[in-house]
């Protein structure tokens, strides 16, 4: 048996990200899923770029604020306590709009872990 409590504030934020990103899977001892906590101020995006994953399914649970997710066909507004799910090979870009009244905090879960499998997506290529 094994149990862990992770103080998420003690996990360093990832450098070179457009917003605060704390990768929690490693400190939590998770091998089969990625889990990240994002906090984006108005005007910041969550991922590094508009992208998709070849094998990973992602779920974004909004803790507070409103997350906006742009996809090739629609833009979604995801309020606090709602979950947005992205299937593999589905391009998306998640962000907090510049005109938002407050930051957005999101718990992002992805399985299987997909370090390095993000594929850049350019909507102009469609």
TrEMBL record:
CDD domains on file: cupin_RmlC-like
Matching SUPFAM superfamilies: RmlC-like cupins
InterPro entries reported for this sequence: Cupin_2, RmlC-like_jellyroll, RmlC_Cupin_sf
Pfam families xrefs: Cupin_2
Domain Cupin type-2: 38-109
Compositional bias ranges of the Basic and acidic residues kind: 14-23
Domain of life: Archaea
Disordered: region residues: 1-23
Entries under Gene3D superfamilies matching the protein: Jelly Rolls (2.60.120.10)
UniProt name for this protein: Cupin 2 conserved barrel domain protein
Organism from which the protein derives: Halorubrum lacusprofundi (strain ATCC 49239 / DSM 5036 / JCM 8891 / ACAM 34)
């Amino acid at each position: 048996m094994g149990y862990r409590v992770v103080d998420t504030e003690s996990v360093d934020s990832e450098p070179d990200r457009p917003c605060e990103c704390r990768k929690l899977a490693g400190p939590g001892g998770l091998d089969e899923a990625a889990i990240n906590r994002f906090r984006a101020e108005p005007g910041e995006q969550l991922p590094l770029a508009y992208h998709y994953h070849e094998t990973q399914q992602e779920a974004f649970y909004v803790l507070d604020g409103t997350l906006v997710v742009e996809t090739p066909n629609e833009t979604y507004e995801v309020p606090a306590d709602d979950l947005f799910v992205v299937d593999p090979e589905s391009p998306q870009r998640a962000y907090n709009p510049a005109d938002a009244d407050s930051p957005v905090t999101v718990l992002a879960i992805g399985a299987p872990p997909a370090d390095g499998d993000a594929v850049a997506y350019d909507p102009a290529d469609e």
